[in-house]
Amino acid sequence: MQPYLSEQFANPSGAHRFARRARAAIDDARDRVAAILGVRGGEIVFTGGGTEGDNAAVLGAVRRHRGVAVCPATEHHAVLHCVEHAHTLFGGRVVGVDSTGVVDLDDLAATLRDVAAAGEKVSVVSTMAVNNEVGSITPLRKVARVVHDEAPGALLHTDAVQAACWLDLRDVAVAVDVLTMSAHKFGGPKGVGIMMVRDGVSLEPLLMGGGQERERRSGTHNVAGIVAAAVALEVTVAHRESEAVRLGELARRLVDLIRREIPDVHETVAAAARVPGIVHLCFADVENEALLFLLDEAGVCASAASACASGAMEPSHVLAAMGVDVRLAKGALRLSLGHTTTTDDIDRAAAAITAAVARLRAPRKVVAGR
Amino acid sequence: MKILVAMSGGVDSSVAAAELLRAGHDVVGVTMRLWGGESDTGCCSVSDVDDARRVAQQLGVDHLVFNFADEFNDRVVTPYVEAHAAGVTPNPCIECNRHLKFDRLLQRAEVLGFDAVATGHHARIDVDANGVRRVRRGVDAAKDQSYVVHMLDAHALRMITFPVGSMTKADVRERARDLGLRTADKPDSQDVCFITHSGGREAFLGDRIPLRRATVVDESGDALGEIDAVELVTIGQRRGLSLPGGAPKQYVVDVDVEARVVTVAPPHRLFDESFSVADMSWSDAPPTGLVAVQSSAHGRTSLARVEPQGDGSVCVRWETPQRRIAPGQSVVFYDVGDEFVLGGGVAVVTRRRRGMTA
Hints:
The complex is a heterodimer. Chain A is of the alpha/beta class. Chain A contains eleven helices and ten strands. Chain A has two domains: 2-235, Aspartate Aminotransferase, domain 2, CATH 3.40.640; 238-361, Aspartate Aminotransferase, domain 1, CATH 3.90.1150. Helices cover 24% and strands 28% of the residues of chain B. Chain B starts with a strand and ends in an 11-residue tail after the last strand. Classes of the chains: A alpha/beta, B alpha/beta.
């Protein structure tokens, strides 16, 4: 991306030679991304990130097609809050999930029938490809079948922000009408997003202005970011299968090491139902705020759930929707594995986690006068 | 020492962190996220958290946020609402200190391996010849906060430090200015953090409990007027009672929320010879001689003797009659020299009609 931050600085929408070079870089990036998703270049829209893509998809569909938006309760807030907002427009419905956090297909079907029975139409159904907290994988083809059967006019969107490292993106893209990704989740820069908008699908743009991206996303192109995103995606996809195997083994090692040392560890979603690189554990009788502090001190960077504007950890809406017991949910820990993760890292992390959990579970000193 | 500094985003805790750092301690700042709703500094008090974080960054110390919103709601907000519903005048800042800052945070700090917890309170901790630890008034009498930290027990006092308690407020601000801290000229917080300036107490309570009209009567029971919300009335109140102007001054001497009757009387009827305090804690054996009694955050003290009752409460006998203390208010006992906290508790209802405690 370096040249596009210095000598190739031009705005690709310009009419001069430098602009044409920048334009060529974007066109090239678009085709490379399209090839990976198995779609046409014209179906790729570059955005400012995953949240923008999710908003553009859900709200864009709601506003253009004037119908109810539907999503499961475990969606990322970038989708969930749009659906909740849609409730104030043409209606928004949140449907239940199974114990792995994946949309309950029966509940989805019932909800779609419900909307139809009320004489309303569904504008969009949004189901994430991979859950960002617990890693569970949604069977998008099955979702597509339900949507096709029960709400034939509705668009199907997927937030595939977590998918690029783990799933075949062609399989994901082929099942849906609109797809959202974010470059920083596959090694690209922050602030760049990729959308796939199927030919013939019409969305009301979020941003109006110069009409870039075929009127679908106005705003001067982030040339360097877009080029970098395309390269990062290519590299990620090239190593995807071997990395998935390697990290799957490391994830199993991590869980086994922890379980061998400490009791009462709940693996939120079993390996078979999730992507290899997201391990989600709940430690009974542990407060994850305290756990994260001790892990950070030990050099292990992990997360628990999302944080609010103040930086405070919020209780997870995903675990709540899945019906995870509050006692367990308070001790939730999400561990992410990626291309830099080594066996040594896993062993160190397991040691730090077992030590921290043991310390937090140690009986409190009894102090007179308390 | 490894010290966790509770940083509210105000100047006192900013300087507390700076002073501990200067003394060579290993300092980590933490802001407790307590109230998740609307506040005067934005939802979750985001701008205060920003100030705390920026000060920590400037000092070069780590800054954490602990989410204690559930406990705050259970231990502070809900009791606050329930107290008003029962016609009692609560002191939420003291309950927050008791349950959040000096219990929840202290426990968390111990578990995480901190040797001490510091806050920006203007109070000192003193150890006497017998090894008894007591809260002592801060150096700056006008800013002294020993009243709101009076409940600290021996264990807590071993773990806590108040770095600015030995400084005047002017010194604190000067120190903050010298360090170029963004909080140097930030005004002191005055009000209950979960009540917005625009909505006030009435809007906050009105969203949570029904506010009911009440009749204002004199001591012979004759109706003098009506008020909108009996839940907002406090013993000793004079204004906002919708009494006709020009009449002699009348004060609230009794609030009966169930009957929805507020009794007013001339000022001399507001004075008591004695009153009761429950939920007592003592830093040592209960005092036998005269004590100085304080019943509001910046109120003056008056002399009294305490008589322990069988049920753990005490009867406080004033040397000279004093204005009635609203039930629910914290009452703190200092030594007769008015310097050291000996103990404290909560004033209880002395009306005969019902036995509501705070």
